[in-house]
Design a protein that fits this description.
By secondary structure, this protein is an alpha+beta fold. It is built from 4 helices and 5 strands; from the N terminus they run E-H-H-E-E-E-H-E-H.
Length: 132
């Protein structure tokens, strides 16, 4: 049976594993991952089926805005409603009125399954020069 629970440090190893399996290096270092997942304003919900098979991380002001920072579900558990339920649980805990996100290629259909308003987005790297 799938459980949806808030992040605890015992989930860290599985979250790092999921990120590495996706090719994401931001949370490849457990110390960095723990700091990010427990940062102020961070809401993290994990899906546990004996081990962590998915997680979502939101950043929120707790009142109006929340932003989906990361969401991943193990390939073996995709298309079973887990990602949808992760978003719903985290949104409920966030206290926000809406979620913003930047979708990666191939994920648009998933996000379109929610009531939504689509608009363009950007990822800004303040310390990089254009074209670098």
């Amino acid at each position: 049976m799938m459980d949806y629970v808030t992040f605890e440090s015992r989930h860290l190893r599985d979250i790092v594993r999921l990120c590495l399996e996706e090719g994401w290096t931001s949370y490849s270092d457990p110390t960095t991952a723990l700091r990010g997942l427990t940062a102020p304003g961070s809401v993290v919900v994990v899906a546990v089926d004996e081990r962590v098979v998915g997680y979502v991380q939101l950043q929120t002001d707790g009142v109006v805005h929340a932003h989906v920072s990361n969401i991943v579900v193990a390939p073996s558990h995709r298309r079973q409603g887990i990602g949808h339920r992760l978003i719903e649980c985290a949104f409920e805990l966030s206290g926000a009125r809406y979620l913003d996100l930047v979708s990666t290629e191939g994920a648009d259909a998933f996000y379109r399954s929610f009531d939504h308003k689509a608009f363009p987005g950007f990822r800004i790297y303040p310390h990089r020069r254009p074209g670098a």
